[in-house]
Amino acid sequence: MKKTFTLAVMLFAIYLGVAQENILQKNKWSIDKAENWYAKHDWMTGANFNPSTAINQLEMWQEATFDPETIDRELGFAEGIGFNTMRVYLHSLAYKADPKGFKKRMDTYLGIANKHGIKTMFVIFDDVWGKTPKIGVQPEPIIGTHNSGWVQDPGDPASKNKKNFADLEVYVKDILKTFGDDKRVLMWDLYNEPGNTGKLVSSMPLLKSVFTWAREVNPSQPLTAGLWAWDFHELNAFQALNSDILTYHNYNDEKHHQHVINLLKSHGRPMICTEYMARTNNSRFSNILPILKKEKIGAINWGLVDGRSNTKYAWNTPIEDGSEPIEWFHEVFRKDGTPYRQDEADLIKKLNTEDDE
Fold first, then answer.
1. SS3 helix, strand, coil % of the chain, rounded to 5?
2. Residue 15: other Cβ atoms inside 10 A
3. Which residue among 46, 153, 174, 332 is the one 20 to 30 A from 213 at the CA level?
4. Over 69-107, what HEC string results?
5. Distance CA 195, CA 233 (A)
6. In 3-state terms, what secondary structure has residue 192?
7. Are residues 253 and 281 in contact, defined by beta-carbon separation less than 8 angstroms?
8. What is the pLDDT of residue 2?
C-alpha cells in the first residue's frame, strides 16, 4: 500500500511538472513576435526609479507615503534628458494591505509617467537586500550606507514557503489582469535577481510559479526576468528560455559588458540592459551607453535622483559621517534637478535625440 501511494505521488508530481511546462510554453512569444514588438519602440533608455522621498518599494507605494508631487517633478527631470523608460519595483505587501488603493496608486503613477512620455517596466518579485519586509512606517536610512532600507519581496524565508504561493498568485494575477493591456506599461520584469542574498536555487520554485501565473493571464506586454549572475546556470537557463525579451544586468567595464552582449546574442532575441552604471566600477554613461546605443540594446541605469535610498554611496563601502563620496556610485540628478555631472546629462540627451535631428 505504501509503495502504491508513493508511486501515485510521484506520478502526480510528474503530471504537475508537465502541466506547468505546457503553460510556460503555450503563450511564450516567438522570436519574430519579440522582434516586431521591439521594432515598434524607440530606443529604450531610462533609469530604475524610486522617488527620492522613498527608502524602498513600500515607502513608494503605501498610501501614507505615496508622493505623486515628487514623482511628477523627478520624472520631469528624466524627460528633460530624453529618458523614455522607467523600471519600477512593486511590493506584494503594499498590495496585500490595500489591493484597491495599491492599484489606484499604480494608475496614478502611470498617468504621471505617461504625461512625461515615459513607459514603465514593473518589477514583481525581488531577492535583494532586506529579508524581512514589514508593512507600515519604514526605517530611516543608515547614514552614508547604500540601500540600507531596501527590502526583498516577498522576503526570506517567505519566498521559499509554498504556503505563501496562493496569496502571491492572487496578487500577480490581479495586477496583470488589471494592467495587462495598458499601453503605458512597457513590459513585466517578473523577478529581480532570483537567487541573490544567498538564496541560490531555492528561488527556483517561485521563479517558475510567477512565470506560470503570468503566462496563464497572458498580458499583451512581454515578460522577462533578467540574468545577473553568470555562474547561476540553472536559474539563468530558465530565465533566458522563458523571457520574451532578454534582459540582463551588468555593472562592469565596457570590455566585460561587450563580452556579455556577444554571448547573449546567441539567443537571437531583442535585449534590454535593465541595470548598469556604477561609476567606481568603471561602468559609466561615457563608456557603456554608446555601446548599448550601437548594439540597439535598451539601457536602464540604476538610479535617477539622489535620495533616501543612498545609492550614491557604493555597495558595502559606507561613509559613516554621511559626507559626499569622492565619486557618486549611482544616480543622475541632485534633488533640485541639477545633474551630478553635466557632461553625462549632455551625453544622455545627445544619444537620446540624435536620431531625431
1. 45, 15, 40
2. 10
3. 46
4. HHHHHHHHHHHHCCCCEEEEECCHHHHHHCHHHHHHHHH
5. 11
6. strand
7. yes
8. 55
**H-helix or E-strand spanning residue 15:** helix 2-26
- Whether residue 350 has pLDDT greater than 90: yes
Q: Which three cell numbers, joined as nine digits, stand for 185?
A: 506599461
Any idea what DSSP says for residue 116? T
pTM, 2 dp = 0.94
Residue 225 CA to residue 194 CA, distance in Å, equals 8
H/E run at residue 249: strand 246-249
Kindly list the structural domains of the chain, giving each domain's residue range(s) and its CATH number in brackets, ordered by start: 44-356 (3.20.20.80)
Report CA torsion sign: 29, 34, 40, 46.
positive
In which residue are the cell numbers 539622489 written?
306
Q: Average pLDDT in the 81-95 region? A: 98
Sheet strands (E) in 252-306: 271-275, 298-302
Please give the single-letter amino acid code of residue 139. P
The phi-psi region of residue 45 (left if phi > 0; otherwise alpha if psi is between -120 and 50; otherwise beta) is beta
pLDDT at 357: 43
Contact 310, 147 (CB under 8 A): yes
Cβ count within 10 A of residue 92: 24
What is the rounded CA–CA span in Å between residue 249 and residue 277?
A: 10
